[in-house]
Amino acid sequence: MDELKETRPKHKMLTLYSIFSSLIIIIILIGLGVYIIKQHDNIYLPYPISKQAAEQLGFNIYYPNSKLLPSGYILNKGSFSSTSQVLIYSVSYGNQKIVFSDQPKPTYNQLLSFVNNNIPLNTTFSTSVGTATIGAIKNQTVVSLPTNSDSWLIITSPESINQNDLDQVLSSIELAK
Fold first, then answer.
1. Are the C-beta atoms of 174 and 63 separated by less than 8 Å?
2. CB–CB of 70/168 below 8 Å?
3. How far apart (Å, rounded) are the C-alpha atoms in residues 32 and 47?
4. How far apart are CA 24 and CA 6, in angstroms?
5. Which stretches in the chain have pLDDT values below 70?
6. Looking at 9-146, which runs of residues are DSSP E strands?
7. How confident is the model over 126-175, as pLDDT tens digits?
8. DSSP reduced 3-state for 155
């Protein structure tokens, strides 16, 4: 009987020690998970190029929010490529593509010259990131979208694109954060 009394406190201590050890391990794992998630967010932006590559471009990056694109339109995450001056990517719909060029915004006079020389017959469309000028060059619809910041998007699509869909694609464009 005395042996039984002596083992109960030891058993209780071992049980408390096990619970305490388990809690510490769980807290460490949760902390490690939070750290990894935060590090991942610091390395990668919401599109598939690194934060370092984006910073080297030297201008803000804009891209369509996949959730706001028209049904059947898909941001091609594998299409992102960049040089020191431009980021290029595409959105697919059916067997067609819309190609985006994100680059530093030129001066007002250069933008005006681009529109006057390349898409003199045009319409405008207001977006949350700037006013788009929409026209055509040969067999393509062309959009010049100087943003409200330091970027200029030139967007090309087949001339057969549905205008409402194009407006929705333009409305889906947002600043990458």
1. yes
2. yes
3. 24
4. 28
5. 1-11, 13-14, 31-48
6. 62-64, 73-82, 87-93, 96-104, 123-126, 131-137, 140-146
7. 999 999 999 999 999 999 999 999 999 999 999 999 999 999 999 999 98
8. strand
- Looking at the DSSP bridge assignments, the partners of residue 76 are 90
Residue type, 124: T
Q: What percent of the chain has pLDDT over 70?
A: 81
The residue whose two tokens read 């067997």 is 95
Residue 149: both structure tokens together: 């910041």
The pair of structure tokens assigned to 90 is 């595409």
Token digits of residue 164: 């409402």
Q: Is 113 helix (H, G, I), strand (E, B) or coil?
A: helix
Kindly state the DSSP code that residue 70 receives in the 8-state scheme. Answer: P
d(CA 50, CA 173): 19
**Cβ atoms of residues 128 and 171 within 8 Å:** yes
Beta carbons of 154 and 62 less than 8 angstroms apart: no
pTM for this model (two decimals): 0.73
Report residue 63 as tokens.
């891209």
CA nearest to 123, candidates 115, 114, 133, 131: 133
Task: Say what the pLDDT of residue 92 is.
Answer: 96
122 SS3 class? coil
Tell me the β-bridge partners of 93.
73, 96
Report the SS3 class of residue 21. Answer: helix
